[in-house]
# Entry
Amino acid sequence: MSKHSKLWTGLASVSTCCLVLSSVGFNCMLGYSGTVNQALGITTSKVVNDGDTSEDTTYFESDYGELNSENLQTLIRETYDEAVQEEAEGAVLLKNDNNALPLSSDETKVTLFGHAVAQPLYKSASAGSKAYETSEGIDLYTALSEQGFEINDTLYNAYVQSSTERGTGKYDFLTNTTSVLSMGEEDISFYTDDLKASFADYSDVAIVMLAREGGEGMELALEDSFEGISQLALHQEEKDLLNMIKESGVFNKVIVLINSGNPMELEWLDEYGVDACLWIGEPGQRGFEAVAQILNGSINPSGSLTDTYAANSLSAPAVVNGSFNNQTWANLDEVLAAIDDDDAGISYSTVQAEGIYVGYKYYETRYEDSVLGQGNATSSAGSSFGKDWNYAAEVTYPFGYGLSYTTFEKTLDSVTINGDEITVNVTVKNTGDDAGKTSVQIYVQTPYGDYEKKNLVEKSAIQLLDFGKTDSLEPGQSQTLSITCDKYLLASYDYTNAKGYIMSEGDYYIVIGDNAHDALNNVLAAKGAEMLTDENGQQVTGNAANVYTWSEELDTETYRTSQYTDEVVTNQFEEADPNYWQEGAVTYLSRNDWEATYPTAATQLTLNDEMIELLAGEYYEKSEDALTVADFTQGDNIGMPLAALIGLDYDDEAWDTYLNQFTISELTSLLSDNFGTSEIASVGKPAIVAGDGPDGVGGTYNESKYGTSVQDTCFPTEIVLASTFNKDLMYNRGKLMANECMYLGMEEDWMPGINIHRTPFGGRNFEYYSEDAVMSYLCAIPEVVAMEERGVQAGAKHVVGNDQENNREGIAVFFNEQAFRETSLRAAEGAIAAAGGKALMHGFNRLGLVWCSESTALCSQVIENEWGFVGQQETDAVAGAEGTYKWHLTSAVAAGVDQFCLDFSGSVGTTIAKQITDTDDGDLLALVRKSAHDYLYTVANSSVMNGYSVDSKIVSVTPWWQPLMIALIVVFAALDILFIFMDLKKRRTVIEIVKE
# Structure
């Protein structure tokens, strides 16, 4: 072959590759068009106003006035300030021996240890803002430098240049890459003599930062592949590092920073001579500024833990069945043979045998029973050390724990009960030498008596009721907080007898404490108990003066009906209890006898035919007397735009008139949500864009409009926000994110995260508030209220029971109804019912055998009928779901689903439209009309309708990248044809020459 022929062949190959890549890329971009447009700041529709332009069409105003570049800069500055303040009040000082912190002005020469200093964990992998990856992100090194610290660059640069990398092993389908699976810490051999020699000149303080990283789809390991131990335990490289620092004798102080959204085991701090330890969580793009200021004393830390820090992370009873201890069915082969769905989504289960005893509700309740000598609480069952169970050995730091650079005195002044309102007045006095803030934590103990024992109503010995936060108090200054609590939170769910919420008969105790354990000791002091100990095993007396006591009679009626709708609240999830199917299938943990009920092994279930049929997920059938398509008016376009529905009640008859204008295909097109929906110009419905992230909505500002193309702010993760115990900051987070959405043209943001930290290993614990359902309930309310007040829908996720990332897709979660209503449902209730959120996203998991999105009990009965929810219910992602448990589309719509998340191809809509027309199913059409009504109601009552009136016209706008991609395809196709032609022509010439 001649050189010219090879040239044309090579060029043809290159052009063919470019043609294929551009064609495939274009198809992918079309499928992900919502995501692409969002990233590029593009909207695919615009409004044209031909009518009265003097009409005020601003239905929701930005807190910053007109949307312009100057006001956006003010917003951005305030989001940065908020992010720093959240970290300032959310970071938790765990240990501070001999007042090692704050560092003095003479202690500025520091050496940073731990590979995490070069690879900080700003947030774990999930959706939302990635602004920490940009020049706007601040790392620990930069933050310390800006505060005047002199840093050992020799060691720091060695970390930066090292090939070591922390990674979860997670596959990213967007980039087609897989991260490394590594703890990301250096082997001790990394620390050469030259590196060690650099310590002496920066020996004021050794600052060690340790990280633990989970993420979406990535649970932390119960037994990792590195050392075969809990991923939350201290690992050998870390032990070697800490031992090297200690034995060097060089450093005056050793400070440890815990850069993790999961609670590490920290019982080793004293062993390695650590002077102070600060939990910093995952600080987002600006939070490290606050960390540096806490270290030098510019900020006094005031955060409190929202999780219990156990000495052994495996000691939580939920671990026995949870996380990587999930089970397959005992008759798995039979199940797989009977169901056509993909195996992964129908194979796994977990039984929540721990019942209500999650987090501190386990450790503190068992402590009280140990003190009072009841329930076999001191037996070795569940002990981490093979001998009698002992609180101080099991718990390192209790829920609500947090130190300060100053001291406070807290006094319970009064408690007033008026109907459903309990008003608690607490005076806080700064008794130390430094200004500072502190949380006021209000707890309650409710009766556990004969009725509860007989009817299996479990009770935590102590339960968070509400909280508040002081202002910054100067030394000697006092402040009185008046906190109104909801008495409803004292009710317990009786699933066996009353089958509803009850107020138990007996004595109730409202108490304040520095943390859950301190509060419980105060209750025990009021009961006259002796031999009380703190978390360190030191004897304490408790403070009975900070306890208020009263009595109640048994009441099975007051909370039998919903406070939101007057709907009767009764059992809806009996089939999610294995004991419903087989007596004695599971023993739930009970404080009545810890020894006999503590789970010792994961529960494996066998499915009978009826259970297999439920697992199969095909519930919808057209009824014999179903309506027909002809019973509905569709396609009768009278020119009514969506703007005509702004402000109208959901039940206004104008909605039917509006929906009559849609064709069936237009209605079903709304079932697919790809971070928004396309415009439907014929009915005046604009294109909609949605954000996705509790710690940042995930968008880029339009430079042509606002003069900047920075991303929205990545705030500290949700667990850090919760740890502030400051509802004002929570409200302000919602307010700021709502304003960001206005500038980004977003109708909603998928936030807050409302699942609980059922085990310490949850991959997304960082973006959920707490192990405690009431904490989650309370934290969500101010955030959601602030969003909704500004016309941005706050879509709580993932509703409900999606507490783990391992096997999250399709896992069958079994429970009893008390535990479910008082944990998973309670955590979601704050955002949806109490705060009035208008959107929510379901979990991937099942409730018992039924996928959340197919559960009529959840979607229709609890969420709509009991909680009074009116708005958008959406599945979690269904991309590529055909042939899986998530493709029982009509059953999901019948249960109450309005939209399917990330249906890039639009297959959901076309599939359901075909079923409606092929079967003439008017009932299914009615369900789709309801789904459209639910969704469009949220849109009509959102800030994206600003600027729209009844005279407005929706004009479709083709994104600039679409014609560009088409042009590239045409060019590559033309070049391909040309090069192939030239190659063939040259080959023919060569052949003719050879013949001659």
About this structure: The longest strand covers residues 408-418. DSSP finds 28 helices and 38 strands in the chain. Residues 305 and 400 are 5 Å apart (CA to CA).
